[in-house]
Structures are given as C-alpha cells and as structure tokens.
C-alpha cells in the first residue's frame, strides 16, 4: 500500500465505502502508548445489518486491516 493511502479516513473509505446517508461510527478505540498498541473499530450500517472492521496502526504510522507483529525477545552475543 502506498504512503498516499495511509490516512485512516482513506483506508476506511476504501474498505467500507460509507454511504453519506447512513455514515460511519467509531465503536471502539484503543491507544496504549506503553505497549505501542493502537486500533479503531469502525461500523457501517447497511440494509443487511451493521458491518464492522478493525484498523490497526503500525510502527511506520500506517493504518492497516491486520495487526502489527509482536516484538519478540532477542539475544545477541557481544
């Protein structure tokens, strides 16, 4: 995904194609700076019912639909 598509607004519009009449709403938001964990759940109302997706912020400041990989313990010899 290019840098131009990294704003949360653009990625939500790409995946959920919001209807101006029904709009969107944020149903959940979490920003834990200590754990470097940030995500947003956005919901769109459709005729078939609500559709919700989670969007995760990665270390490069990009928003994506998959969570960032966890940091794993590492050892090195000096």
Describe the protein in words.
By secondary structure, the protein is mainly beta. It has one domain. 12% of the residues lie in helices and 38% in strands. It is built from 1 helix and 4 strands. The chain has one helix at residues 8-16, and strands at residues 24-32, 37-46, 49-57, 63-64. The chain has a 4-stranded antiparallel beta sheet with strand order 1-2-3-4, covered by helices on one side. Strand 3 (49-57) and strand 4 (63-64) form a beta hairpin. The mean pLDDT is 83.
Q: How many separate domains make up the residues?
A: 1
C-alpha end-to-end distance = 37 Å
The 3D shape can be described as elongated
Let me know the largest β-sheet. Answer: 4 strands, antiparallel
Taken in chain order, the helices and strands follow as: HEEEE
Query: Averaged pLDDT, please?
Result: 83
Uncertain segments: none
Helical/strand content category? mainly beta
Number of strands: 4
What oligomerization state is this entry in? single chain
Helix content: 10-25%
Sheet-strand content, in percent, reads: 35-45%
Radius of gyration equals 16 Å
Number of helices: 1
In which order are the strands of the major sheet placed?
1-2-3-4
